[in-house]
Amino acid sequence: MSSHTAQTELKFLGKLLVDAELHCETGLHIGAGKGSLEIGGADNPVVKDAFGRPYVPGSSLRGRLRSLLEQATGNAVPSELAYLTRRKGVEVRVHQSDRPDDEICLLFGRHPGRLERVQGEALDGGAVTPARLTVYDSPLVPESITPAMREYLDDELTEVKSETAVDRITAQSNSRTLERVPAGARFTVRMVLDVLCPEDRELTAQVLMAMRLLEDDALGGGGARGSGRVRFANVKLTWRNKAYYSGGAETTVASAATLAELQAANLTDALTD
Question: Is the pLDDT of residue 37 over 70?
Answer without folding.
Answer: no
